Amino acid sequence: MMSFEQVIDIFGDYLALDTEMEVCKSRYGYIRVEFHGTGELPGYCSGMVCRTPKELFDLLLSDYESYLEIQRTKGRRDVTEEDKNEIAALCQSRLEKWEKGNAR
Fold first, then answer.
1. Which of the 8 DSSP states describes residue 93?
2. What is the pLDDT of residue 75?
3. CB under 8 Å to 81, separation ≥6 — which residues?
4. How many Å separate Cα 24 from the centre of its chain?
5. Which residues contact 91 (CB under 8 A, 6 or more apart)?
6. Is 26 helix (H, G, I), strand (E, B) or coil?
7. Which domain of life is it from (predicted)?
8. Comparing C-alpha atoms, which of 101, 79, 99, 76 is closest to residue 88?
9. Residue 64: which of 97, 25, 17 has the closest Cα?
């Protein structure tokens, strides 16, 4: 079974790029925090506790997909079929890493 740390490794490059997301260890599991706003002190934040590596993986995969959509469209247009296909391919590589890590 994959560990929390391995899930974070799968999304490490994404988390380094997305300055609004952070994953923190807590006594209850891991917390994914999303900061809202700009500048050094964001206006507010929201978080979700993930008690299992699978919960964290699913949440980060969804966050990653949304991030890719915004990156591709710059928030100025709808997502096209081409966008969806490219995003799905990028997400698929993360899913394969998850599956490979849990096949052991």
1. H
2. 87
3. none
4. 13
5. 61, 64, 65, 68
6. strand
7. Bacteria
8. 79
9. 17
Within the chain, residue ranges assigned H as helices are: 4-10, 12-17, 53-73, 81-102
pLDDT score, position 60:
98
Asked whether 87 and 65 are in contact (CB, 8 A), the reply is yes
- Residue labelled with tokens 């990156």: 71
Contacts of 76 (CB under 8 A, 6+ apart): none
pLDDT 10s digits, 64-87: 999 999 999 998 999 999 999 999
For tokens 């500048």, name the residue.
39
Residue 33 has φ and ψ, to the nearest 5°, of -110, 135
Distance in angstroms (rounded) separating the CA atoms of residues 49 and 103 = 25
Q: Where are the domains of the chain?
A: 2-101
Low-confidence stretches of the chain (pLDDT beneath 70): 38-42, 104
- Nearest-angstrom CA–CA distance, 22 and 42: 13
- The confidence score (pLDDT) of residue 94 equals 97
